[in-house]
Description:
Layout (H helix, E strand, L loop, with lengths): L2 H7 L3 E7 L4 E7 L4 H12 L7 E7 L2 E4 L17 E7 L6 H4 L3 H16 L7 H16 L20 H6 L4 H12 L7 H12 L8 E5 L8 E5 L3 E6 L8 E4 L3 E7 L2 E6 L7 E4 L3 H21 L5 H164 L11 H68 L1
Parallel strand pairs: 1-5
Antiparallel strand pairs: 1-2, 3-4, 3-5, 6-7, 7-8, 8-9, 10-11, 11-12
Helix pairs in contact: 4-8, 5-7, 5-8, 10-11
Amino acid sequence: MSIRGLKKKQPKTFKVRIITVDAEMEFSCEMKWKGKDLFDLVCRALGLRETWFFGLQYTIKGMCTWLKMDKKVLDQEIPKEDPISFHFLAKFYPEKVEEELLQEITQHLFFLQVKKQILDEEIYCSPEATVLLASYAVQAKYGDYDPNFHEPGFLAHDELLPKRVLRQYQLTAEMWEEKITAWYAEHRGIARDEAEMNYLKIAQDLEMYGVNYFPIAQNKNHTDLLLGVDAKGIHIYSINNRFSPNKSFEWSSIRNISCSEKELTIKPLDKKAEVFKFFSSQLKVNKLIFQLCIGNHDLFMRRRKVDSIEIQQMKAQAREEKARKKMENQRLAREKQLREEAERAKEELERRLFQLEDEARQANEALLRSQEAAELLAEKAQIAEEEAKLLAQNAAEAEQERQRLEITALKSKEEKRLMEQKMREAELIAVKLVKESDRRAKEAEHLKQDLLEAREAERKAKQKLLDITRLNYPHMAKYPQYSPGDSRDANFDKGSIKLDLKDIDLKRLSFEIERERLDYLENSRKFEDRLKELKSEIHALKLEEKQAGLYS
Length: 552
């Protein structure tokens, strides 16, 4: 067979892009493939066995619809693009996620889709619940909280809360992160699949979880109601309230659902009950509602039957996988605990080693300081020894000087004693001179008094002599040539001689007194000079004694 023949027999293909919640894949499909062939290929690529929850969704003319499994892909009304894009999403939701979602990949895909619906506000969630759900999402992504690794700001690039919640409260991104981190820190030890399951368990209790809404009308003219289809049944809502249904039809109470053009009929199991009819704007919407009703009803009935062999095997495998994962998680937890203990022990050893190194460094520094101190002390000892020798020499010299000073002091004492004796003698002489001076002064005073008395007596005698002369010889004035007058003159001259002699004695006495006074003054001056010399010598001796005492 030629190569050209092989090329002719190769089937024609077209490209398909499959977009999951967190990834994209491209496949080459044969032209004859049906929707189920493409769906099975995607499930095999994902390793998904719980295929009944999922479907391939595409958008045509602004309306979301699901790829039919029993028709060829190219025969359906799909977008004319290359490659053709389909979204692999959950089409039906479980009633109890913990019991029905068996595979980890199934849980993960549901977790991502429900999380996206909450963030896009397709499912309403209270602010408190969004913070708790965000903490489980962070636990699933980052693992256990570690304050050393998960520093403030590590959630800055993660979308964790709906914009409606962020607008509703005037909180900064740091405040929201602090609130989420507070819950996140409490989830320590929870594995990723467990955190995702806890997220879904909280989300499945929300009013809008798993509900597909469609606008309908009770008559052909007005669209004033919403019809919701979920895993539990069909619900009728008012146009402004998607939380509380006005009317609900559980799958167990519905006998039949029929669809004809734009009309949808719900027949209750109770034949006496009223039949409800609703109208939609388009036939495609009615068909989509009818398709979702059939799928959800089939799953509802399937849950209440005995599980098939395949489901039983999957549940057994899921239990084994959970047990294995539990043991693995426990082992990992033990290993993590041991590793943390080892790290703590390592840190303690490193701290201890660092402490010992620091102590060793300090000891080396202390040793170096001790060596330096020893060298310094040796130098100081040598200097002290030299100083001791010098001090000993100085001590010997001081001792000699002391002996010399003692001899000098003895001499000084003797000289001082002699000087004191001389001073005492000088003081006695001075006292004697003072007494002698007083005595001489008194004698001079007496002599002066005697002199005054003598002069007064002389004056009186002269006066008396003159008086006697005038009385006895009054004629002597008239007769000067009388001869007896010569004898009187002789007598008078004789008296004058006596008076002159007396005057001479007085002058001599005055001269002697003056001479003695001058001698006294001269002696006093000499004695004062001698006293000054003695005082100077005594003062010099005192200074020498004081200096000798200070030097000693």
